[in-house]
Design goal:
The protein contains 27 helices and eight strands. By secondary structure, the protein is mainly alpha-helical.
Length: 570
């Protein structure tokens, strides 16, 4: 069959001889292939010495597909080509046997093949097409591997966290001083991966716009089964399948920054997800939970497909939709043909987006929650640390927000004035969250929750970096070796010449989560992991999505109800 497998009819002895010939010849320039497999030779290129004959029992489709996936993420073109041939031939064989209903080739029973639904060679051609899309990726990895091997020195492994443009701006700014940042290797590596992942995502959205028209069409290329949720391996494999040649791993790291193990369309493109959620709400409120009734209403001519003109006319003039109707049609038009069949809308029946996508912002409800947290915990910093951000990643997610609300509702000591203003149900809570998470990204930074608290912590961290190198080191420098930092020790450590303008007593009380009148190392260590510069950039970037990508900054408003609990998930 090839150098990677034993040909049909070749004996075990022949295979053993072939292994010897291969191992001897690879060092001398080429390897001679089995004559029963068609003959030929393998040139001594990168990866050729890795070729091995495999037992016959391993020549099955699953093993060949696994081998193809490994080769597609490797750095050897030879390995990719051989994996392609093996996978294609075995898929071809299995498809043929399936068509003629013969489980194994048995010469005692002559089954007469029926007419094949697909021509011979279709499976092999499909595998070759997959390999061609991945060829340039593997080729570049092969070139990079050659360069690394030829390099006389190893790279430092410490990547800059600033772009060249940012560095030039800082150097040119009069009187500017670059703040020192003292981070370990793991923090630097994580930071550089997050930066790269964000940049790869932006280029992936551009790729989606260029090749598919919008990110929603690309999503269904990644999620062909319409589960509306993708795991890591499926995401990486499908991104490679559609021909995107940059690092899917880095993009995944950024998209799944909370380590949930899966992402949704809201993670990939929150603006488009918001528009789709508005349409789902509209049809559910008007026609019920099934999309079939809504489709029949839009398809007034009974053609089985709705075109753009009848869709936009019906949704605007009859249903009172005030969102971007043309853009919504393009998101639903999965193939870009200008006509939408029913099967392309059925995902709306099973999709359960988070409830805040359906709500209008309620700043008053958000303020009531802040007042309740401040009453219960004396400061919003302490409330953030103790209730809102228990994992100390300086991000507040919708799930954490909802869990904090349930805890607040169980408190009986709140004044009636605050209780009356607080959200009464999940709909009200979702509206309060929407006031915090205006762009529906699913998370909010501390600066978005309370700017005053953010400034207090930022000033303290910058003071610690400037005078001690890191916050935990400042803790040990100021501590009298008993592992507890008191308010007086903190005051003595922050000298007048340091120009610290924050309220030291307020800072200490806020960090003293357990109200013990002293701080432990664990209560300040989270500040070392807090990457303020990355957060600065990320918060600004998520509000500046490129309008050319089709991610229009708009919410889908409907003219009837605004929330339906039965069609959402928490």
């Amino acid at each position: 069959m090839s150098a990677c497998g034993t040909a049909e009819g070749e004996t075990v002895a022949d295979a053993e001889d072939e292994v010897a010939v291969l191992s001897e010849s690879c060092g001398g320039g080429e390897a001679i292939l089995s004559s029963s497999a068609g003959g030929g030779a393998v040139l001594a290129t990168a990866g050729a010495p890795l070729l091995r004959l495999v037992p016959k029992e391993r020549l099955h489709v699953a093993a060949a597909e696994a081998n193809f996936r490994r080769a597609s993420t490797g750095s050897s073109m030879v390995a990719l080509k051989h994996a392609t041939v093996i996978s294609g031939l075995l898929n071809e064989q299995e498809a043929y046997l399936r068509e003629v209903h013969v489980g194994v080739v048995d010469t005692r029973h002559h089954a007469r093949p029926k007419t094949l639904s697909k021509p011979l060679g279709a499976q092999l051609y499909g595998t070759v097409s997959r390999a061609r899309r991945l060829e340039s990726v593997v080729a570049r990895s092969e070139i990079a591997a050659h360069k690394r091997a030829a390099s006389p020195t190893l790279p430092s492994g410490i990547l800059s966290t600033f772009s060249a443009d940012q560095e030039d701006e800082e150097k040119s700014a009069p009187g500017s001083v670059r703040r020192p940042v003292f981070l370990g290797h793991s923090e630097l590596n994580t930071k550089s991966i997050m930066h790269r992942g964000f940049q790869v995502l932006q280029r992936f959205l551009q790729f989606s716009k260029r090749n598919h028209g919008n990110a929603v069409r690309t999503w269904f290329q990644l999620d062909p089964e319409e589960n509306m949720k993708i795991g890591k391996m499926q995401f990486i494999r499908q991104v490679q399948e559609i021909g995107f040649q940059e690092s899917a791993h880095a993009m995944w790291k950024y998209l799944d920054n909370c380590n949930n193990g899966s992402i949704t369309i809201l993670d990939l493109d929150p603006r488009s997800a918001t528009v789709l959620a508005g349409f789902k709400l509209l049809v559910n409120c008007t026609f019920g939970p099934s999309i079939t009734a809504a489709f029949s209403w839009f398809d007034f001519n009974g053609s089985g497909k709705m075109d753009k003109e009848e869709f936009c006319h019906g949704i605007r003039n009859e249903l009172g939709y005030r969102g971007p109707a043309e853009h919504l049609f393009d998101l639903l038009d999965r193939d870009g043909f200008g006509r939408i069949p029913l099967r392309d809308l059925t995902f709306l029946d099973s999709w359960r987006p988070p409830p805040y996508l359906f709500c209008k912002p309620d700043p008053a409800g958000l303020q009531a929650l802040k007042d309740a947290l401040k009453f219960l915990h004396q400061s919003l910093i302490r409330a953030w640390r103790k209730v809102l951000d228990p994992d100390s990643n300086m991000r507040l997610s919708w799930v954490e927000f909802a869990e904090a609300f349930e805890k607040i509702r169980q408190e009986r000591s709140l004044p009636d004035e605050i209780t009356e203003r607080m959200p009464k149900n999940r709909q009200d809570l979702a509206s309060a969250w929407r006031a915090l998470d205006a762009d529906c990204s699913g998370w909010a930074a501390m600066r978005e929750f309370d700017m005053a608290s953010f400034e207090v912590l930022r000033e303290f961290k910058e003071w610690a970096l400037t005078h001690h190198g890191m916050v935990s080191k400042a803790f040990h420098d100021l501590d009298n070796a008993n592992g507890k930092l008191t308010l007086n020790e903190l005051k003595r450590g922050i000298k007048p010449e340091h120009n610290f303008e924050g309220d030291i007593e307020f800072l200490f009380d806020a960090l003293d989560v357990n109200n013990l009148a002293n701080l432990s190392d664990n209560e300040v260590r989270f500040l070392d992991a807090w990457d303020i510069e990355w957060e600065d950039w990320e918060v600004q970037s998520k509000h500046r999505l490129d309008p050319k990508l089709g991610l229009h900054a708009c919410s889908a408003h409907v003219g009837r109800k605004t929330f339906v609990n039965n069609h959402t998930s928490g």
